[in-house]
User: What shape does this take?
Amino acid sequence: MRLSQYFLPTLKENPSEAQIVSHRLMLRAGMIRQSSAGIYSWLPMGLRVLRKIEQIVREEQDRAGCQEVLMPTIQPAELWQRSGRYDDYGKEMLRIKDRHDRDMLYGPTNEEQITDIVKMECQSYKDMPKMLYHIQWKFRDEVRPRFGIMRGREFLMKDSYSFDMDYESSKRAYNKMFVAYLRTFDRLGIKAIPMRADTGPIGGDLSHEFLVLAETGESGVFVHKDVLEFDIPGEDIDYNGDLQPIVDKWTSLYAATDEKHEESAEAELGDKLLAARGIEVGHIFHFGTKYSKPMGATVTDKDGNEIDLQMGSYGIGVSRLIGAIIEASHDDGGIIWPESVAPFSVGLINLKSGDADCDKTCAKLYSDLNAAGVETLLDDTNERAGAKFNNMDLIGLPWQVVIGPRGLKNGVAEVKNRKSGEKEEIAIDQLVAKFS
Ligand code: ATP
Ligand code: MG
Ligand code: MG
Ligand code: MG
Assistant: This one.
């Protein structure tokens, strides 16, 4: 992409409405614009990052054996009346009427919808087990939408649902998602720690929230410091093998949000305990027959008995993750994107647009890099050098390549690593090889 043509409305000043750094930087880097409270439009730069995150989430769901579907945003109230949640859900649910005066709603989550699909299509033990997911916009009329897309009203969520014949099998599904989440967040360049979460009236120990440590997080968290050093399962993990040892290891040390924290842990763990704040980016939950029973989602087993399906649901806040990543990775100059989600890998700066040699070299590099699959943003504008550097730092691409008349004489470019700040001179004819 050429910056002179790109729709990237960056801001020099800090917008006054933004209280936390990720919100400020997303506005300043031209990623989002507010439509109304908690509802945002995604501009090209923001959308690129959103799509990258979505794709990593998708790949790890697929790897774990989950199958992608797409359910609607608008659901009939009748579904929620069957589960009993229509009245319980309260004011967070946006309720709508269609022209025939039928009650509809904008889905805050999809347990009812997916349970209904499985109820209609699966009758026998031969259809089990199943894990299904979708990545779809949700609406929750939050009392206090704030921090930009971090607590939006409209937001993008990945939600998976598992269906099994018995508890043991359901627990295997839970473990698959547990491991898939470890891998997903790791690939996104963040440390998200699984913490024991409330199971409410359902009970049991199969509910974990995944939290990213950040000062601006809304939850207090208490973590055994060694958890931060645990290894992430590799890409070759066998999802059909026994995942229990991995889950056991990750849950062996203390990790709790303020809701579940026990003060006794403080004396027990001493200086091994880290008290911090965290952002909830994922939540996995086994809830047994909570929806299958009232909604009649049963299958017949080998002996012809009707079995209520055991279910779990597994959410990831795809749009919230952008905020969490920025909270965890920025400096005074702006965003520092982890390579895996960066909107472009390389920011190519033409220091002297209009200079024939600079223009020619940049045009060739730009086309060679793109041809080699290196996503490149070329700053071909007429801004001052200082403004170009500041802008590149703000939008946070992992690499900056600077082409100027002086370096050109020696056939070199200056390459800066956004994260470390390190600069080195590299021969122009070696640049494509360095980045591809
Ligand atoms: P929170 O405690 O932050 O309100 P939640 O527990 O209500 O979140 P879940 O129902 O567990 O959320 O939904 C799954 C995931 O969706 C959450 O872990 C979070 O990452 C994301 N999410 C929930 N609410 C919002 C929101 N208002 N804006 C952005 N993402 C959200
Ligand atoms: Mg909530
Ligand atoms: Mg929560
Ligand atoms: Mg939750």
Remarks:
- The pocket of magnesium ion (ligand 3) is lined by residues 280 (CB under 6 Å).
- The radius of gyration is 24 Å.
- Residues 95 and 105 are 4 Å apart (CA to CA).
